[in-house]
């Protein structure tokens, strides 16, 4: 028996590729067959169409389903609305996330840094649904924000904000601004971590050199620190942007009656039974992301991951 | 090293504190609401405080069934993710070959693409293959996107482990299996465990892929989602939310505790 | 004399990069043999092929006249000390050292006895329960040595083992390594890029360059009779006159001259040296016990000359001033190219 094991071991030594294949085969076949197989099958439906009369899928190649995305005003609006929201959320997360990342990377002792680290990790990994739910409590008519504005006698201001088109909505809990807040809250940790990583890599001597050469703190920030943090921001934006593009639960719960891509996919495959159109809608975030990632790569996003 | 030449400006300090509060106040509010006496609305501040909702939840058969199902799914998916993710990491971490980038991409894809795409793809594949929805169909989906977490952890550890350790072990007379048992496993152990913990947290909480692969079964997140869409039992939902926070915090804190001394703490939680 | 190691026509390439090109080496039993060369010259790859961590695409490895080309490392009767020591981080010093005994299932009593013995040899008594992370660089080095020596291998491979230590410690360890080799009477194969280390410790040296062995010889011959311009240039300080310049001295091959054989004259005096060159001082570098003076001449290479700083008849040379450099034909080394 022992000899047998040693023989196998010798065999592995002489045939390193065999061991490599033995390792790779299970995960590769799992992902290749189960995952990639079903993914490609589904996405290929975007080249088919739904027969309007029978409600059955017509399996002949056509580009009409994809054209439908852009020809129909309603569909095109969905695309624009989603990309617009994703960009706004990305911008918001960068704005809120940067000070935390900067403070954490450059002004903390190791112990405080660990505290920050866990403080960012906990929300990142804790339940998505619970965190969305918490905002239902916050944004509710009788919730903390309305209470706060009421205490300050500023309810009129809140109403004014809510009445602005493309920002507001009937109430905080059904509004664009509400959606923006929830999305920003949910994806914020994904923005903080890469920015922190890229800032941590900026040696302090570089900052000192800039100060030494006569730049003010403000100039140093804009000329040295911010450009070097850019790869981190780009990396973080990949997450915030793509996660917002594909999400359908937050618009469903907080959003107005106007659809987003995720909801469109959901409805088309579900109640409407229009798998081809659902597949065509699914292609959009994938293609947008491919271009987005290419741009981000040029900004050095992948070195910051 | 500490950057001491200039202290953080007040603006920066305030910015960082506001950011942290933004991240944590919502979770704290949920805990506060779990004790409210109000059961018809989300009134703030709560008119009074009570513990009775905890007692009621304890007696709710349907919730505990959902918890049980979620736990079962999370445990099995985690085990599968550990096996598949570790194997993939062992195969890919060092060797360079044609197509390696594509395979790495394939591992990340399930978590990088919107969950709804993964969910619908699997759902239509099941229906084409004639597989009826069951716990297993959920587990297949979960294992697929949990794999990457384990993979990331193990690859990070392997990269930091000197390749000479394996050579040293063989040099000292240990064959491949002895080397695996005495050297590789003890070194990877904590990384695998940390990855597994996170995979567990990920699976226990997942709702989108689950929605499409579950059929009639109710996991805890699905129960929660229904309550989010049509709130019918607000105080119960508050208590369940607190419960979920607790059960996901434990593995996360444990995972960061385990990797605290090594610099791969950062990678492990990505 | 028995052959401990024979490499017969070893070639190895990584993709399009030729790491080793037709290497032939014979290492005698009990020899302290160094593989010397700049980084990327193939010396470490060569060591890994001897140890069995890597295979070669061509050629054979023989260990005591037995072909081990396809034998895995755990069946080769030799041990390795790694550059980064490769101590198992999860094991104590004791378990690290006893690892091979545990694998061989030696009984516990014997294990403990041998571990204690070797701990004494490497002066690590009292440290045996620590983890490698709790040791200094020098101590880790000793643990790595003890771990590979406990089996009394016939051959010990050392991959730049002193590279991570500071100068003082390195010099001390050089002496200890030599003592250990004498004590255990085993073959050492020592990889280094430090020519001083190789010259002072080795019985013989193989100089590697670009995956080839340039010269195999004793330290004395490597220094005094370099065969190629690479060896001449890599070992010590030297001035090489390429073929084109050499012809002006009526010499058909390129040649090198060591600084200690060149003398400086302030004017063309009546000395009897064979060759004279007019040259200008470009730099004077203080080196402690001597000055290194760099000259520029009409030839391609700058010339280095040593001047003893403790010499009474010390002349102070001036930068940009011209002098006559002289050397004898018998002191030059002819080089193959």
Tell me what you see in this structure.
The complex is a heterotrimer of chains A (305), B (270) and C (337). With 305 residues, chain A is mainly α. Chain A has helices spanning 2-14, 16-44, 64-71, 73-106, 110-125, 128-139, 144-151, 155-162, 176-200, 204-212, 217-246, 249-254, 261-269, 275-298, and strands at 49-50, 57-58. Chain A is built from 14 helices and two strands; from the N terminus they run ααββαααααααααααα. In chain A, a hairpin with a 6-residue loop joins strand 1 (49-50) and strand 2. Mean pLDDT of chain B is 85; it is low at 262-270. In chain B, helix 1 (10-33) packs across helix 11 (234-258). With 270 residues, chain B is an all-alpha fold. In chain B, 74% of the residues lie in helices and 0% in strands. Chain C is of the alpha+beta class and 337 residues long. Chain C folds into two domains: 3-233, Rossmann fold (3-Layer(aba) Sandwich); 237-334, Beta Barrel (OB fold (Dihydrolipoamide Acetyltransferase, E2P)), CATH 2.40.50.100. Chain C has nine helices and 18 strands. Chain C has a six-stranded mixed sheet, sandwiched between helices. Chain C has a five-stranded antiparallel sheet with strand order 13-17-14-15-16, with no helix packed on it. Chain C has a four-stranded antiparallel sheet with strand order 2-1-4-5, with helices on one face. In chain C, helix 2 (93-103) runs parallel beside helix 4 (137-149). Chains in contact: A-B, A-C, B-C.
Q: Any chance you could write out the topology, listing elements then pairs?
A:
The complex is a heterotrimer of chains A (305), B (270) and C (337).
Chain A: H1 2-14, H2 16-44, E1 49-50, E2 57-58, H3 64-71, H4 73-106, H5 110-125, H6 128-139, H7 144-151, H8 155-162, H9 176-200, H10 204-212, H11 217-246, H12 249-254, H13 261-269, H14 275-298
Antiparallel strand pairs in A: 1-2
Helix pairs in contact in A: 1-2, 3-4, 3-14, 4-9, 4-11, 5-9, 9-11, 10-11, 11-14, 13-14
Chain B: H1 10-33, H2 52-58, H3 61-92, H4 100-112, H5 115-129, H6 135-160, H7 164-171, H8 176-205, H9 208-213, H10 220-229, H11 234-258, H12 265-268
Chain C: E1 3-14, E2 17-28, E3 32-36, H1 43-51, E4 58-63, E5 66-67, E6 78-81, H2 93-103, H3 108-121, H4 137-149, E7 155-159, H5 167-184, E8 187-192, H6 195-201, E9 204-209, E10 212-217, H7 219-224, H8 229-234, E11 239-241, H9 243-246, E12 255-257, E13 263-265, E14 275-286, E15 290-296, E16 303-308, E17 322-327, E18 333-334
Parallel strand pairs in C: 3-8, 3-9, 6-7, 7-8
Antiparallel strand pairs in C: 1-2, 1-4, 4-5, 9-10, 11-12, 12-18, 13-17, 14-15, 14-17, 15-16
Helix pairs in contact in C: 2-3, 2-4
């Amino acid at each position: 028996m022992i000899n047998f094991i040693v023989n196998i071991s010798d065999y592995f030594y002489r045939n390193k590729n065999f061991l490599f294949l033995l390792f790779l085969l299970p995960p590769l076949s799992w992902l290749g067959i189960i995952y990639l197989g079903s993914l490609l099958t589904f996405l290929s439906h975007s080249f088919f169409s739904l027969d309007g009369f029978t409600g059955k899928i017509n399996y002949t190649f056509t580009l009409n389903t994809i054209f439908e995305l852009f020809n129909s005003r309603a569909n095109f609006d969905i695309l624009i609305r989603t990309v617009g929201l994703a960009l706004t959320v990305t911008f918001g997360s960068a704005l809120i996330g940067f000070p935390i990342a900067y403070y954490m990377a450059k002004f903390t002792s190791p112990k405080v840094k660990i505290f920050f680290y866990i403080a960012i990790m906990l929300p990142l990994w804790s339940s998505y649904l619970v965190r969305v739910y918490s905002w239902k409590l916050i944004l509710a008519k009788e919730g903390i924000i309305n209470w706060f504005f009421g205490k300050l006698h500023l309810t009129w201001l809140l109403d004014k904000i809510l009445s602005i088109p493309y920002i507001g909505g009937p109430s905080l809990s059904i509004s664009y601004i509400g959606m923006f807040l929830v999305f920003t809250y949910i994806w914020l940790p994904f923005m903080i971590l890469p920015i922190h990583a890229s800032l941590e890599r900026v040696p302090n001597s570089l900052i000192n050199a800039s100060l030494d050469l006569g730049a003010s703190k403000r100039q140093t920030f804009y000329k040295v620190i911010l450009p070097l943090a850019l790869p981190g921001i780009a990396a973080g934006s990949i997450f915030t942007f793509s996660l917002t593009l594909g999400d359908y639960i937050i618009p469903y719960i907080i959003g107005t009656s106007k659809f987003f891509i995720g909801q469109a996919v959901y409805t088309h495959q579900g109640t409407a039974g229009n798998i081809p159109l659902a597949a065509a809608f699914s292609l959009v975030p994938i293609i947008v992301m491919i271009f987005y990632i290419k741009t981000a790569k040029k900004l050095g996003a992948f070195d910051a991951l | 090293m500490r950057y001491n030449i200039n202290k953080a400006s007040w603006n920066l300090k305030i910015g960082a504190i506001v950011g942290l509060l933004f991240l944590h106040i919502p979770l704290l509010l949920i805990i506060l609401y779990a004790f409210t006496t109000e059961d018809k609305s989300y009134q703030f501040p709560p008119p009074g405080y009570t513990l009775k909702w905890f007692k009621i939840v304890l007696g709710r058969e349907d919730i505990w069934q959902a918890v049980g199902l979620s736990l079962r799914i999370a445990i099995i998916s985690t085990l599968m993710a550990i096996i598949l993710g570790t194997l993939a990491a062992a195969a890919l971490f060092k060797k360079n070959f044609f197509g390696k980038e594509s395979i790495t991409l394939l591992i990340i894809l399930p978590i990088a693409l919107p969950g709804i795409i993964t969910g619908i793809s699997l759902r239509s594949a099941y229906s084409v293959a004639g597989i009826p929805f069951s716990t297993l169909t959920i587990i297949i989906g979960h294992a697929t996107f949990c794999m990457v977490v384990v993979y990331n952890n193990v690859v990070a550890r392997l990269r930091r482990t000197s390749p000479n350790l394996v050579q040293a072990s063989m040099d000292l007379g240990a064959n491949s299996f002895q080397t695996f048992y005495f050297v590789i496993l003890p070194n990877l152990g904590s990384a695998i465990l940390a990855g597994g913990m996170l995979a567990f947290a990920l699976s226990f909480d997942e709702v989108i892929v689950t929605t499409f692969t579950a059929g009639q079964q109710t996991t805890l997140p699905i129960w929660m989602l229904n309550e989010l869409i049509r709130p019918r039992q607000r105080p119960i939902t508050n208590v369940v939310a607190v419960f979920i926070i607790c059960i996901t915090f434990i593995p996360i804190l444990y995972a960061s505790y385990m990797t605290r001394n090594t610099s791969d703490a950062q990678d492990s939680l990505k | 004399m028995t052959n401990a190691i024979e490499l017969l026509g070893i070639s190895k390439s990584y993709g399009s990069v030729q790491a080793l090109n037709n290497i032939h080496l014979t290492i005698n039993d009990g020899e302290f043999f160094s593989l010397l060369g700049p980084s990327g010259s193939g010396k470490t790859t060569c060591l890994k092929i001897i140890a069995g961590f890597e295979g070669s695409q061509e050629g054979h490895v023989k260990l005591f006249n037995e072909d081990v080309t396809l034998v895995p490392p755990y069946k080769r009767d030799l041990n390795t000390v790694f550059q980064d020591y490769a101590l198992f981080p999860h094991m104590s010093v004791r378990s690290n050292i006893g690892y091979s005994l545990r694998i061989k299932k030696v009984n516990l009593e014997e294990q403990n006895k041998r571990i204690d013995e070797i701990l004494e040899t490497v002066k690590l008594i009292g440290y045996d329960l620590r983890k490698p992370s709790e040791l200094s660089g020098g101590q880790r080095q000793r643990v790595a040595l003890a771990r590979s020596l406990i089996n009394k291998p016939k051959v010990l491979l050392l991959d730049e083992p002193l590279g991570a230590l500071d100068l003082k410690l390195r010099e001390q360890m050089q002496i200890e390594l030599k003592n250990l080799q004498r004590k255990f009477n085993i073959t050492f194969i020592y990889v280094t890029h430090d020519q001083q280390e190789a010259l002072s410790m080795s019985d013989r040296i193989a100089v590697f360059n670009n995956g080839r062995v340039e010269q195999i010889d004793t330290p004395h011959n490597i220094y005094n009779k370099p065969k190629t311009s690479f060896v001449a240039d890599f070992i010590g300080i030297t001035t090489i006159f390429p073929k084109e310049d050499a012809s002006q001295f009526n010499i058909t091959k390129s040649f090198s001259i060591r600084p200690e054989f060149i003398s400086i004259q302030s004017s063309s005096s009546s000395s009897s040296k064979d060759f004279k060159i007019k040259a200008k001082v470009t730099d004077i570098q203080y080196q402690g016990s001597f000055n290194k003076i760099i000259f520029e001449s009409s030839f391609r290479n700058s010339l280095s000359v040593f001047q003893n700083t403790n010499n009474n008849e010390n002349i102070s040379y001036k930068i940009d001033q011209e002098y006559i450099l002289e050397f004898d034909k018998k002191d030059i080394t002819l080089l193959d190219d």
